[in-house]
Design a protein that fits this description.
This protein is α+β, with helices and mostly antiparallel strands. The protein folds into 4 domains: about 110 residues, 3-Layer(aba) Sandwich (Rossmann fold), CATH 3.40.50.20; about 260 residues, ATP-grasp fold, B domain (D-amino Acid Aminotransferase, Chain A, domain 1), CATH 3.30.470; about 170 residues, no CATH class; about 70 residues, Beta Barrel (OB fold (Dihydrolipoamide Acetyltransferase, E2P)), CATH 2.40.50. It contains 17 helices and 42 strands. β4, α2 and β5 form a beta-alpha-beta unit. α4 runs antiparallel to α5 and α12 runs antiparallel to α13. The longest helix is centred in the middle third of the chain and has 23 residues. The protein starts with 10 loop residues before the first strand and ends in a 14-residue tail after the last strand. The N terminus and C terminus are likely disordered.
Length: about 750
């Protein structure tokens, strides 16, 4: 293989000493969906592309879709995606003459930007001085105050008054919701400040924090800015990102429903955003974020000196390709006009996370086998006159895709665009509800519940929305009679697949005229909940009879119900006889049911997992419903007209109650130990923090379930642990009081 040579650059010096340049090959210093997004535009512009990857990412789509790819060797993020030296070396090796940082990782690291420029490469981003100016939220607020941008005044934790509570403690160097805590009264303040400082130090290497007034029902409104090196600054529409979990965004849309109700605020908001950009000599794409009240009063939060995750909604409503503009501005070109195009229509985006919301947003690593929307979706597209469209920005290309715990849990963004908000929201809910997502748990059902919630539909939801609605948006989309039909379809599909392996002639009621015998003897298979004790067992027992004969088959299936973690649901008991199925008190009646319309290999099945895909027709109450049942390894996914659910043969993660001795606390997921608060022999009380586990950039605290003594502590800071691994063992108080004392040590 020949080594590419670096392309010749033509540079122009700017007022602050940095340079803009023409370039021909760009290295994307990132991974996943944003790397794929940048590759798409670069290829459209005729630019060469270079991806970087770790050993774990060797087969990831971003690594295989670029023209060239360079492996980053190392065992940690600090040695790979967070290593400026490794990334610049990769650019040299590959002949890249520009670097685009994407978002996250080193995208807002001024030292990295300087190193790129110092290496003679073009930096696709704002100047390092602008990054530094906005890198500290404390100094950023001072600059914005001087520029006349409205601010929430800083509060000194030592002098905050009772009337000023609740207050928000924020990491000065923070982002992504990390290093943020809310203190609702004085008794919480010291603890929350300490926790915010600790997390800020761990996440950003800087424990500086500050306090400000906390708006309980604020609206997160932000303005997309684009600025060139010739003095033009665009405010390219606003977005609202008020639906958040753990101070991290879930749903974003443009335009903002709040600003649509108060259109007179828009010009003031845009003026403030342009003033903020001008105050720091901003160049390129960035976002000025504000917190607004219900009556339209707004306050500066921060400037994100990079492309935002939610940039697709602005691309949809403006018709712009923001990544193309980043490339053009970095090459020294002016913006094409004094003002941006007029925004039209409405766009909304939902982030599909690999997590279980009902289990405190527990990350859900594993293998993603299928990710497909029911409609025609585009990887990247701006409207170009269309009335409506669907777009998906995903980390997944050819699947399966391994989803680990070292990175953010977002696996895709789904975006819809329509002439008005109601149509866009309805289209997004339909796309997500009907998506085929097999292999890992996601927040899919929560997203559907949010999009269909009346308050969200009205456009009045604030940042307090998830806290206010609680369990309303944690309920599974498929429940009740719909879940019963899915259980029937699952049992029939598994029976057909098993019988088909024994007899090629098997067909279950293809013409809806009765059942054909699929076996001489009854068979029974019991399936367990996929998340052990945390899942609710929803059972369906099918018994098929012909003329009073013995059952042809009987199956018990347990619905995969992570949404009901910690709660109890009434079991299903479904009996099928004489062509009818009934289900206990719900009186589900399937009068003539169960045509198995076809069984074949599951698409995208890994060679070692195999898998079958079966289409089943279930008639219930005179209605026919078609269900696609995919059996792959230990999982049974059912996609039906009412949504999707999962059945499972064995636990996805080990059941802590079954796999460990008394007092053992096991890791609920794979991750890294980032803090240990106790030592062997310590006496602890119920609820006391024992250690902290980090997975998918989220922190999880393991607490003592009861009073006791730490008898075993087999892990330490820095250890990587697997799901089900013992973290700590607690002996209950008094457990060993009656044991004979050993010999004394003297």
């Amino acid at each position: 293989m020949t080594t590419p040579t670096t392309q010749k650059q033509t540079t122009q010096t700017t007022a602050n000493g940095t340079h803009a340049a023409s370039f021909e090959r760009v290295l994307i210093a990132n991974r996943g969906e944003i790397a794929r997004r940048i590759i798409t535009t670069a290829r459209d512009m005729g630019l060469g592309t270079v991806a970087v990857f770790t050993a774990a990412d060797a087969a990831a789509p971003h690594a295989t879709e670029a023209d060239f790819a360079v492996e980053l060797t190392g065992d940690s993020l600090a040695e790979t995606y967070l290593s400026a030296e490794a990334l610049i070396d990769a650019a040299r090796v590959s002949g890249a003459d520009a670097i685009h940082p994407g978002y996250g990782f080193l995208s807002e690291n001024a030292d990295f930007a300087r190193a790129v420029i110092g290496a003679g490469l073009t930096w696709i981003g704002p100047d390092p001085d602008a990054i530094i100016a906005m890198g500290s939220k404390i100094s950023a607020k001072e600059l914005m105050g001087e520029a006349g941008v409205p601010l929430l005044s800083d509060l000194d934790p030592a002098t905050v008054t009772d009337a000023e509570f609740p207050v928000l403690i924020k990491a000065s160097a923070g982002g992504g919701g990390r290093g943020m805590r809310v203190a609702r009264d004085r008794s919480e303040l010291d603890t929350q400040v300490t926790e915010a400082k600790r997390e800020a130090k761990s996440a950003f290497g800087d424990d500086a924090v500050f306090c400000e007034r906390y708006l309980e029902t604020g609206h997160h409104v932000e303005v997309q800015i684009m600025a060139d090196r010739h003095g033009t600054v665009w405010a390219v529409g606003e977005r609202e990102c008020s639906i958040q979990r753990r101070h991290q965004k879930i749903i974003e849309e443009s335009p903002s429903p709040l600003i649509e109700r108060l259109p007179h605020v828009r010009s003031e908001l845009f003026d403030a955003a342009r003033a903020a950009a001008s105050a720091i000599g901003y160049v390129g794409a960035g976002t000025v974020e504000f917190l607004a009240t219900d009556d339209g009063e707004f306050f500066f939060l921060e400037v994100n000196t990079r492309l935002q995750v939610e940039h697709p909604v602005t691309e949809a409503t403006s018709g712009l390709d923001l990544v193309r503009l980043q490339f053009e501005i970095a090459a020294g070109a002016p913006l094409p006009a004094d003002e941006p195009p007029r925004s039209t229509g409405h766009a909304i985006e939902a982030r599909l996370y690999a997590e279980i919301p009902a289990a405190d947003y527990r990350p859900a690593a594993g293998t993603l086998h299928t990710l497909a929307l029911p409609g025609r979706a585009h990887q990247f597209r701006s409207p170009h006159g269309e009335r409506a469209y669907v777009r998906i920005d995903s980390a997944a290309g050819d699947i399966p895709l391994e989803v680990g715990t070292d990175y953010d849990p977002m696996i895709a963004k789904i975006i819809t665009f329509a002439p008005n908000r109601a149509d866009a929201v309805r289209a997004l809910a339909t796309q997500i509800r009907g998506a085929r997502i097999h292999g890992i748990d996601t927040n899919r059902d929560q997203l559907v519940r949010i999009l269909e919630h009346p308050e969200f539909a009205q456009g009045t939801a604030s940042t307090a929305f998830l806290g206010e609605v609680g369990d309303e948006v944690l309920a599974p989309v498929v429940s009740g009679a719909d879940l019963g039909r899915c259980a029937i379809a699952a049992a029939l599909a598994m029976e057909a697949a098993q019988a088909g392996a024994e007899s090629a002639a098997v067909t279950i009621h293809p013409a809806l005229r009765g059942f054909r015998n699929v076996g001489a003897a009854a068979r029974s298979t019991e399936l367990e909940p996929a998340t052990g004790a945390e899942a609710t067992a929803v059972r369906a027992v099918l018994t098929s009879r012909r003329g009073g004969a013995e059952p042809v088959f009987a199956r018990t299936v347990a619905a995969r119900s992570a949404h009901d973690a910690g709660r109890t649901a009434r079991p299903w008991s479904i009996a099928l006889a004489s062509g009818k199925a009934t289900a206990g008190e719900d009186e589900l009646v399937a009068d003539v049911l169960a045509a198995v319309l076809g069984t074949g290999a599951a698409p995208g099945a890994a060679a070692d997992a195999g898998g079958t895909r079966t289409e089943v027709l279930v008639r219930s109450g005179g209605l026919d419903g078609r269900y696609v049942v995919t059996v792959r390894g230990e999982q049974v996914d059912v996609d039906g007209p009412g949504g999707a659910t999962r059945f499972a043969l064995t636990p996805r993660y080990p059941d802590p109650n079954a796999a460990a001795g008394a007092g053992s606390l096991l890791a609920p997921m794979p991750g890294s130990i980032i803090g240990v608060e106790v030592a062997e022999g310590d006496t602890v009380t119920a609820g006391q923090a024992l250690l902290r586990l980090e997975a998918m950039k989220m922190e999880h605290t393991v607490t003592a379930p009861s009073d006791g003594v730490v008898s075993e502590l087999p892990v330490s800071v820095g250890d990587k642990v697997d799901a089900g691994q013992t973290l700590v063992v607690i002996d209950a108080e008094g457990e060993h009081e009656d044991e004979p004392a050993g010999e004394s040590d003297h």
